[in-house]
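Box 3.1 A note on notation
Throughout this textbook, protein chains are presented in two layers. The first layer is the amino acid sequence; the second is a token string describing backbone geometry. Keep the layers aligned when reading.
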Amino acid sequence: MDAKELEKVLADHKEWLLDNTKGKRAYLRRAYLSGADLRRADLSRADLSRADLSGADLSRADLSGADLSRADLSGADLRRADLSGADLSGAKGILSIYPIGSRGDMLVSVIHKDSVMVKTGCFWDTLDNFKKAVKETHGRSDTALEYAACIKLIEVWAEGKQDE
């Protein structure tokens, strides 16, 4: 899919979101979008199942309610992306844990370039910085213990991914 085709799909999808009798829902199932610039794209409720989104820039994208099942999100930039209600089952290159923390947010971990990145709420940074933020914010609370278990899971998951 070239950039013009993608622009058309996104425009039709935006129109469909405003009035589902107009436009057309984005069906990007199995689409090759590796490295695509989808910053701020409204892909809420879009079908991106099995899409290759590896290395895509999805920062600030609205992916709420999107079907991302079995999509490849390896190395995707998810800074400030809205993943609420998204189906991430079987997605490659990503570990999602939901609900987590005091607000019951979704925690997403992605192997991004040379580091493991963590996203939860508006936080998007390395796993090491996430550890520091948890300690500073939650001290020794139950929430801190919950996050500590998730951190251990992420470390084991990321180590396994390096062996692949």
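The chain is about 30% helix and 15% strand. Residues 29-162 form a domain with the Pectate Lyase C-like fold (CATH 2.160.20.80).
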